Amino acid sequence: MGFNVAARGGVAVVLLFLIAITGAEDPYRFFNWNVTYGDIYPLGVRQRGILINGQFPGPDIHSVTNDNLIINVFNSLDEPFLLSWNGVQNRKNSFEDGVEGTTCPIPKGKNFTYILQVKDQIGSFYYFPSLAFHKAAGGFGGIRILSRPRIPVPFPDPAGDYTVLIGDWYKSNHTTLKTHLDRGKKLPFPDGILINGRGTKGGASFNVEQGKTYRLRISNVGLQHSLNFRIQNHKMKLVEVEGTHTLQTTYSSLDVHVGQSYSVLVTADQSPRDYYIVVSTRFTSKVLTTTGVLHYSNSAGSVTGPIPGGPTIQVDWSLNQARSIRTNLTASGPRPNPQGSYHYGLVNTTRTIILQSSAGQVNGKQRYAINSVSYVAPDTPLKLADYFNISGVFRPGSISNKPTGGGIYLDTSVMQADYRAFVEIVFLNKENIIQSYHLDGYSFFVVGMDGGEWTPASRNSYNLRDAVSRCTTQVYPYSWTAIYVALDNVGMWNLRSEFWARQYLGQQFYLRVYTTSNSIRDEYPIPKNTRLCGRANGRHTRPL
Ligand SMILES: *[C@@H]1O[C@H](CO)[C@@H](O)[C@H](O)[C@H]1NC(C)=O
Ligand SMILES: *[C@@H]1O[C@H](CO)[C@@H](O)[C@H](O)[C@H]1NC(C)=O
Ligand SMILES: *[C@@H]1O[C@H](CO)[C@@H](O)[C@H](O)[C@H]1NC(C)=O
Ligand SMILES: *[C@@H]1O[C@H](CO)[C@@H](O)[C@H](O)[C@H]1NC(C)=O
Ligand SMILES: *[C@@H]1O[C@H](CO)[C@@H](O)[C@H](O)[C@H]1NC(C)=O
Ligand SMILES: *[C@@H]1O[C@H](CO)[C@@H](O)[C@H](O)[C@H]1NC(C)=O
């Protein structure tokens, strides 16, 4: 099979090519998605939402470790569109990451076929639209990656497995919110909270049978607010966080920060009736609350009693809960060997990166920055500029390793890092907000978090034994969070705030994990169906 078949294009050829590099033994799953606008009424008023195959939220992706996912996305909106995959690592293949720094937008009326492999992954994640504040209109859905049949899972098969997408929501459409931000204003306070696309009226309902145990995969797909999740009279046993099986600790409520995903087991062990599922905002003076229902199949009646309260402004409660979330070292991950067989705490870090967020005005408009740089998108995806050697698009090193102390300025920030480096990243939050950071392409160990200043002595408090490995971490107000990450995935990877107005107004950059090797052992060749745009227009994904 040679490169000359490229001109014919099409999924079949893409497939043949993929088999050639990834091995045919891993199964393929095909998805055909039509992205349209449609009327939705989540808070009782009509809104223009973004639907996938007519659904809001979009359909779930069900997969098994190592599956190839072939997702053909038709953009039937009137503007460019992209989907991205929160937590799917796209190993050696950042071209498919679906953020504007890696992938050309799908023009209106066109389609693009993503080719992903959930290589060596398990767990609960979600997808979302990455451009133009589309996330405020929907277009998101759950992703679950199950363990392969013979890999032991540290709990019995649940009787049911539910996706629970929670998030803050606005009655305004996404174009209104985007225009607001484009004019240099801050995002206003949201109007409500949704559970699987529903507010309190006609809210989300989950059916259970008495005596059985269910898995709930809870993701915060909202724009800004940390949310507390709880179920009236029921406990939740935490079992998985973004691909890591955790110590199975029981909680009566759980904080889910924006961008994060958690799996809990809930046993229907109460008398048969309906119980409130409650989601409320954290760290806000005005508390927004939404309820859904846990419905027993033999229910004797509807929900009764007061809606159970949860924590509101307490930071220490949340910090203590975060510290209690740890890896079960004897449980397996995507492979049969114990998760504790990789002793990250014994590996010396090769570099320390300190990142500080800030907010301020540039040219009279609100902007957000990391180490003083507020990211602006270039005319060509960074990954394509890198691949085609197009100069003048970005400069590696255009963001500092450490806070500069200077004022906010605009730039296309790209940080260079060596393939196989083992890096400590310290996130500093000197603002009175709760921050949440996500790194594409990776899972990282959350080794420490605390209030006050981070100093080298803070390392003495790091958890070097059973920290949880995940892809999104919170940073509390006037606090720091430290992570360790093994840079074993070559590519151009987005590091961003999940606080969506901040991401949109510059609080992000790209980590260029680089090697001089041109081997497909380290990075796959550019996919043949890659859309080209900007200064990459007219280039060829294969030599002529
Ligand atoms: C668009 O969809 C068609 C099938 O309807 C497929 O053959 C084609 O490869 C897709 N285009 C891209 C760029 O993925
Ligand atoms: C997508 O849905 C729209 C609206 O229902 C329809 O007009 C269009 O033909 C659909 N496109 C595809 C590729 O299915
Ligand atoms: C950890 O995983 C092991 C192996 O599956 C399991 O037997 C044990 O109960 C788990 N321990 C905790 C505390 O979750
Ligand atoms: C979005 O909301 C604004 C303000 O309410 C309205 O003028 C506009 O028509 C809406 N756009 C769409 C496409 O619904
Ligand atoms: C880590 O660094 C220490 C001190 O420099 C050294 O003694 C140790 O051998 C190193 N460990 C590894 C695993 O490289
Ligand atoms: C880009 O430059 C590198 C290093 O000079 C070279 O190996 C590679 O082939 C070039 N890529 C393209 C697409 O021309």
TrEMBL record:
Signal peptide (from-to): 1-24
Recorded GO MF terms: copper ion binding; oxidoreductase activity
Top-level lineage group: Eukaryota
Keyword Ribosomal protein: no
Plastocyanin-like domain span: 35-148, 161-299, 379-517
Keywords, comma-separated and alphabetical: Glycoprotein, Signal
Keyword check for Glycoprotein: yes
CDD domains, per the entry: CuRO_1_AAO_like_1 (cd13846), CuRO_2_AAO_like_1 (cd13872), CuRO_3_AAO_like_1 (cd13894)
Protein family according to the UniProt entry: Belongs to the multicopper oxidase family.
Record's protein name: L-ascorbate oxidase homolog
Record organism: Acacia crassicarpa
